[in-house]
Structure to design on (430 residues):
């Protein structure tokens, strides 16, 4: 029971982080009016946040390996509360952009810190499923931004909505302080002691492990589309190009979370039992994302509502799919550097997201502003990322197959899977 309490408290911190991350996505049009921002400038709000988030992943991972989950979750919560409060009261565009950067830094500390709790508090058989549950439970923050936050924004205004979000952050901070422990009481984790200098010098080694790179490109190819949709351009696209009301757009984002939860449980069970099928699942998700967007973008007019639901459901598979990237990192890296490896993986999807978000903002602006045609053209930049990710996954998967037979790498796999499950991996690859 104690393990679930610690994990649930950490997940609450992640839920608040996702809420903080996605508030500007549902309030983008309000932000444009409040700060007199063009589409290109508006995209800079979120792009800078994601730049900070992505750039902080390796440093956050190094700090996590050195100080542990509790300190990092508390630090992240403090930064996000400060950023949301600043955004709530400022009417200055530079100050607002700076506040979003602070939110991005706090967000960067949170997820990998919660994820690191899992191998310490749960059995090896539970880890893949609990890892998936961590990711999909955190997406409840998107529901909070799409429904109650949006309702509060419409009914009570910008300042009250953002201060309420900050109050949730304070609650999470207090609960983390009281309930989260890095390891179970009385349990000694036999991780080798690694100095900060040694950890810094090991970053290249961690990246050169094919499983780390496979995780990076897995995260890149699966996660960016739904992230761009939820974080920045989804609500404007649905309301302007697809002629939906803001409440209807919020409902579709809620459907996204439900789809991610259902699929996350399924993929967690499958990857736990069949680790050698993980890369095929990832490739299927990437290809399905590209196909459903092709169908929607090929239409010369607004899509029917049922097709938009299909679009939302399919791209939502990318969230659970990206969690497989962390499983690759866990398989190929020792616990002493796992935070750094997971930070490297987490950069993949967010680097792709920030590039796509910024490119879309520039295309929409160059095409004359918000319209059906400008959005249709802007979403096409996704195909570049999909092609790159598929090619990189195929290349790194091949290298991982060659490496899996090596004794040093195989001993990490043996830590998490039974002999019966390892045997087919060594024969058939990943």
């Amino acid at each position: 029971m104690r393990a679930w309490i610690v994990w649930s408290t950490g997940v609450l911190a992640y839920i608040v982080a996702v809420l903080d991350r996605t508030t500007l996505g549902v309030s983008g049009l309000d932000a444009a009016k409040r700060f007199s921002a063009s589409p290109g400038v508006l995209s800079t709000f979120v792009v800078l946040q994601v730049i900070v988030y992505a750039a902080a992943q390796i440093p956050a991972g190094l700090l996590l390996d050195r100080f542990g989950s509790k300190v990092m979750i508390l630090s992240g919560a403090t930064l996000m509360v400060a950023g949301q409060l600043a955004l709530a009261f400022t009417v200055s565009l530079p100050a607002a952009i700076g506040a979003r950067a602070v939110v991005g830094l706090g967000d960067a500390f949170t997820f990998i810190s919660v994820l690191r709790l899992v191998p310490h508090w749960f059995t090896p058989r539970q880890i893949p499923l609990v890892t998936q549950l961590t990711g999909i439970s955190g997406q409840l923050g998107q529901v909070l931004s799409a429904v109650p936050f949006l309702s509060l924004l419409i009914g009570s205004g910008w300042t009250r909505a953002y201060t309420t979000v900050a109050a949730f952050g304070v609650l999470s901070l207090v609960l983390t302080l009281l309930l989260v422990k890095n390891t179970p009481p009385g349990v000694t984790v036999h991780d080798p002691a690694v100095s900060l200098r040694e950890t810094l010098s090991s970053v290249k080694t961690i990246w050169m492990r094919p499983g780390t790179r496979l995780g990076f490109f897995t995260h890149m190819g699966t996660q960016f589309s739904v992230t761009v949709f939820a974080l920045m351009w989804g609500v404007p696209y649905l309301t302007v190009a697809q002629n939906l009301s803001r409440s209807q757009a919020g409902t579709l984002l809620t459907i996204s979370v439900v789809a991610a939860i259902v699929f996350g449980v399924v993929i967690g069970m499958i990857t736990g039992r069949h680790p050698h099928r993980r890369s095929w699942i990832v490739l299927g998700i990437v290809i399905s994302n590209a196909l459903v967007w092709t169908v929607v973008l090929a239409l010369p007019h607004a899509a029917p509502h049922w097709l938009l639901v299909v679009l939302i459901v399919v791209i939502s598979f990318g969230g659970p799919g990206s969690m497989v990237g962390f499983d690759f990192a866990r398989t190929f890296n020792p616990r002493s550097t796992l935070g750094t490896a997971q930070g490297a993986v987490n950069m993949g999807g967010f680097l792709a997201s920030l590039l796509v978000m910024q490119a879309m903002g520039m295309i929409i602006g160059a095409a004359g502003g918000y319209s059906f045609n400008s959005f249709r053209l802007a979403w096409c930049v996704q195909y570049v990322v999909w092609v790159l990710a598929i090619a990189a996954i195929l290349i790194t998967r091949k290298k991982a197959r060659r490496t899996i037979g090596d004794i040093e790498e195989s001993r990490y796999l043996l830590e998490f899977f039974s002999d019966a499950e390892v045997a087919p991996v060594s024969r058939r690859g990943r």
User: Anything to note?
Assistant: The chain has one domain: 2-179+200-428.
